[in-house]
Amino acid sequence: MAGFVRHRRSKRIIATLTGFEADLLRSLAAQLVELLRNEAAVPHEAADPMEELFAGSGFSGPTTEPDDPVLARLFPNAYRDDGDAAAEFRRFTEGTLRDGKARAAGTIIDTLEEAGLPPEPGSDEITIDVDLDLPTAEVWMRALTDLRLALGTRLEVEEGDEDYWYSLPDDDPRGQAHHIYEWLGYLQETLVLAVAG
């Protein structure tokens, strides 16, 4: 398993992924895009003329925390002790934040496909060279963070619970999903180091 490194001469950030790893990453990113797009809350009815002016402009969105735990983790309340302020903040920001997170995950998909990932599932026999400039690498960092948060929330990962995960049998799907969670963390860490280097 290779992570990201910074090329000394070109300063570009590169990684070589197996076809299986690239397919897995593309699939996770696509699932996140689908969740962000399909679970978007229906805009509420405008309560005053100013709200009507902003309706459909991207500045009028949901006012309540999402029911889905992953979305609630990705879009937490901005004001824990002030429900009205949290609702107003969410109304003016969540739509834009959703779009940004979906675009970032889409960048992972686009980059992998541009690198030559075939439409059919790959294998460990083929490899994909991912080559990122600095701005694209920063988008990847944000998307990898979102992917880890989403998977960690679904798995209910908690700080200090490593013994539980390592005690699961090799064929337990939860343990396998946790290995993917750790792999995403590894990719994220090597990418951060490569960008900083």
Automatic annotation (TrEMBL):
<dbReference type="InterPro" id="IPR018561">
    <property type="entry name" value="AosR"/>
</dbReference>
<dbReference type="Pfam" id="PF09438">
    <property type="entry name" value="DUF2017"/>
</dbReference>
<protein>
    <submittedName>
        <fullName>DUF2017 domain-containing protein</fullName>
    </submittedName>
</protein>
